[in-house]
Amino acid sequence: xxxxxxxxxxxxxxxxxxxxxxxxxxxxxxxxxxxxxxxxxxxxxxxxxxxxxxxxxxxxxxxxxxxxxxxxxxxxxxxxxxxxxxxxxxxxxxxxxxxxxxxxxxxxxxxxxxxxxxxxxxxxxxxxxxxxxxxxxxxxxxxxxxxxxxxxxxxxxxxxxxxxxxxxxxxxxxxxxxxxxxxxxxxxxxxxxxxxxxxxxxxxxx
Length: 206
Known about the structure:
The chain is α/β, with parallel strands linked by helices.
């Protein structure tokens, strides 16, 4: 019998997990309760370009999601701000680092997979009172910017995407033989519960 694990992510974001679970005879069934939408916040871009103009090379770029690098890079090119692509980039973990390298960014630091861990690593590398562009989604955890600002650095938030709820009618069918549900964020947990009708499915939730 096939055994399935429901994961609250888009199918393309489940490929690595599928490779890890396949030897155990488990198949990932994607349940994307959130979907990505592009964001172009012109006020944030104006501040970034004013504080990190062409010729300034002492700023850093922080990336806490693999969804951010390609969107940041394409927006830089659309605005003629290719100089930002050459800034040293700090990625929260290996997956984000791979996405940043694929987008043509210069990855200088790879964190342990958490915003707090990335912030601690950056504090060891940043010059005093540095400027850090934080290319991010609209909803983020506060640990990374709080650490940097608390140490006297300037954090320039730059929202390049947002995660919108997928309408329940557009979610795929749950299907049979579910062994477990993997919840990938607090918001995803809330939307998963809504999507399945308000009661948790009768299986373990991780």
